[in-house]
Design brief:
There is one protein chain. The protein has 181 residues and is an alpha+beta fold. It has 3 domains: 45 residues; 63 residues, SH3 Domains (SH3 type barrels, Roll), CATH 2.30.30; 62 residues, SH3 type barrels. It is built from 1 helix and 15 strands, in the order αβββββββββββββββ. It has a 5-stranded antiparallel β-sheet with strand order 14-13-12-9-15, with no helix packed on it.
Amino acid sequence: MHLQKGIHTMRKNYSIFDKEKIVAAILLAVILILIGFGIGSYCFGEEPLATCYAMCKPGSRVSVRMEPSKDSLETGFLECGDSFKTDGESIDGWIRCYGVGENGWIYSGYVVTEPVRMVGQRYVCSANKQVACRKWMAGPQIDERPWMKSGQHCQVFCESDGWAVTSRGYVKTEWLDCDPE
């Protein structure tokens, strides 16, 4: 009987030890799974969203479209200097836009990566040649007065990323100097 009692006590202690091992194994498995998800989302997860800004003539707006097309339904709009988030996805010059309207697409010719600086001053063209005035950044030349000649004046409304929105159109800032007069 004494031997039986000892075996029973040993089984009881052994079964408690087994339960502790099972709990420890489950905790270890949960920790490994959580670490795996963390590493997986770090290595294979989506890139964080970047902040970009709309640049247009103050008082006008840039459309956010449902699809990457100028004929697509407008789901929202941005005014000059407004920020939005993007994952960088681009289709035919249109960039994915989050946080405006129902999300959508914005044309890249109106997108800058640095905050827009409002200027509101008169500038003079300092180029040694004529400079193209564009419909949007790196876009086609405007139809009326497509060129600005050295020494010509214009009003600069805002600038960012090396481009200025002027009274003549979009012009690279490298060709403009503040008018001292």
